[in-house]
Design goal:
UPF0750_membrane; about 290 residues; 2 domains; about 60% helix; 4-stranded antiparallel sheet; YitT; transmembrane; membrane; single chain
Length: about 290
Amino acid sequence: MPGKKISTKEYIRRYVFMFIGSILAAVGLEVFLVPNQIIDGGVIGISIMASHLTSWPLGLFIFLLNFPFIYLGYMQIGKNFAISTLFALTSLSIWVSVLLPIPGFTNDVFLAAIFGGIILGIGVGLIIRYGGSLDGTEIVAIILDKRTGFSVGEIVMFFNIFIIGSAGLVFSWDKAMYSLIAYFVAYKLIDITIEGLDESKGVMIVSDHPHEIAEVLMARLGRGVTILHGQGAYTGESKQVLYSVITRLEIAKLKTIIQEIDENAFVTINEVHDVMGGKVKKRAIH
């Protein structure tokens, strides 16, 4: 059965949020980072240095240097990704030019690195969350990941260390170190924007009292629980394994519940990067 098509309303919603993300990214760049000669990683960082050296508009470099990667994204990832990325880059380039006459918000380089990184990270995170990208190096990293033994994160980090290190030659080594601060702040805010503050955790519980624990988890945490059937490799005994998705704020309460019922239960807790479908939303508990 073919999957359900995305509605027009959902498409509009995606592009509205990518538009907002491009405005925030432009504010982070033109109001905080660029006036203080702080760069970001990736193609945006190269564009900032190129604009400084040539006095050509930053928006022009952002668009032109990323354009070849849009084609790569179209070939390797898909048409929707390429269209979303083209929209986000065009919007960012326009807003960077619009905000150019506005003076920098602060002359304190450290504050500019922190707040510029925060605003830029939220903007880029919104664009990635809704299907686009602002950085061609990530597309290259996805392609190289398939052909090398390095992960996407390792390849992007290698590119960015080289790019941010170049800021020391173009501006000063102090500015390169501030750029590194801005990069890590933006990197963290991108993660928070994509995944949310309410981080999900996947929990697996092996216990001799599975049904009792499941009932209490549903009653006291309001979470759905799935019972899986397993077997101990050493003993050969049949086991029932509980699986549930909770938030990090509920971990302590989960441990308390399990300890009250079965202090010998075996529990593993893992990161869950995304959740869709299923009955994982918390029910109201009165």
